[in-house]
Amino acid sequence: MIQKKFILLAILACLATFILSCEKASTTVSDKERPVVEAFLVPGSPIQVKVYYQKYLDDTISYGYPVTGLKLKISDGTNTINPIETSPGVYIYSNTAFVKDNKTYSLSFAYNGNTVTAQTTVPSKPVGFKASATQQYVPGFSFGSTPKTFTPVVFSWTNPNSDYFLMVFQDTTSNPNPLNSGNTTAYKDSEVILGQVVSYQTSAMTFTYLGNYNVLLYHINKEYSDALNSSGGTSLNLTNPATNVVNGLGIFTAMRADTVSLLVYQ
Questions:
Q1: In this structure, what CATH number is given to the domain that contains residue 213?
Q2: Residue 36 sits in which domain range?
């Protein structure tokens, strides 16, 4: 399962920014010690829940320190499971059959005298996901020549209920080659926050590497869309990041994906 570190970095960056926000007066201890939860439920994948201490502005690590020794409970309304802490702050439940389409799941655990809770529903698989082509030609560029025309690939799907979507481009080539020989940055999957649309088309800037891609369309929940779009606070306009965790921060959400293949060549 793709663990959406793509967006969590943005969310956690926002958390880092707002912790010591506009209120320059002292903050209560309980406010400072809310745990940050990170969990994405995907049918067919193990459950992984990460719990961290809230991060401070003067903290230079990517996440706060892990919260260990918790007794997590996740319920589907009928059955309750207890993820096991496999490394500091990381709680795993390995039975991949527990998470199912269209079911609602609740998370709870005790922390500093409070009960931290969150709830999410697994969305349905995207319907009608297709691409206008199976190959994407990306013209090369050279000085003194006329660039060839870039023809975008259009991805489309149905969305009668105005649901939320996210797209991930994942190069599955063992050693992907960069489009630009001068590109020295390490490869990483690219993501596009789509919102409530029914199509997306590539651009000349979509790809930086050649190869065989999995293009994943994720059907996501509004709580996740809100979290993704709330990370735009600045030092002049600090805002609280959106969260669906009661007595905590972060995100406990679910998603469902469909995939098409795409060859990117030059």
A1: 2.60.40
A2: 5-124+221-255
